[in-house]
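Example 311.
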Amino acid sequence: MTNKYAFFEGRIVPIDEAKVSIMTHAFNYGTGCFEGIRAYWNETEEQLYVLKLREHYQRFLRSSHIILISLPYTVDQLYNITLELLRKEGFRQDTYIRPLAYKADSGVGVRLHDLEDQFALFAIPFGKYLEKEDGAKAGVSSWRRINDNAVPARAKITGAYINSALIKTEAVMKGFDEAIVLTQEGHVSEGSAENLFIVRDGKLITPPVTEDILEGITRSSLMELAAKELGIETVERPIDRTELYVAEEAFFCGTGVQIAAITEIDHRPVGKGQIGPIVRQLRDLYFSVARGQRKDYLDWVTPVYATVPAI
Ligand SMILES: Cc1ncc(COP(=O)(O)O)c(C=O)c1O
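Predicted structure in complex with pyridoxal-5'-phosphate:
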């Protein structure tokens, strides 16, 4: 099953009608921003649950604000458009949702001002992002992370993903599954398209939001789950490269990657060289919440299809 529709220029249209010109500003200069949202199919309830839908649109509007895109929609309106599109698609499987805000004018001239802004949205069935979720091999990239004073990583800007693409492809070409990228100053920032945590002395550590990371929604969700459900606090502090080598556990997290254990970094085993207990517990928790199986976390998910009221 694939997707049949998109939201484009103000309405839901057949996917073949959602096309832009090669002269589009965003296509030429990367002047757009986007989101990646997941919806999880719950087979028992025959329900599709969208994870943290509101939070993603809040970040989307923050990204838009940074690059001077002004959309005629509120978070609530974007939320409703998304549910409408998903219902029309009728997906009964895990789904990835991609909203885009972009500079839509045709023509030449690099700038952000005096340009038309547009919004588009599509959703596709989607499974794993990283094949080896149980034991990814990572290498520290020779590329550096984009800097807030050049290209802000805090905003999910389309053009900025050339940095992620360079990082990812170098890693794969070198035989790794993923990369870990350092800031200009040499601290650990994140993965190519995911945030990163390590475990030292039983505590979770992750780089703070001032280390040129995307302020990940999975990252903050996991910090909350770890504290509430496992009693493990997360320390947000700069991480040195060699702390990666001596960590007990390490993992990537993000909407795409979900939670992937890192079992080797720069050819050194992490901990015992296999998925560790904290990563495993967090991953189990995360998926049960995402699929709407944890009734105490139903406010994290939005059901797409009408629910039959209990009698
Ligand atoms: C560069 C980068 N870092 C981190 C993440 C994780 O963010 P989130 O958990 O909000 O999906 C993503 C995207 O998913 C990303 O592209």
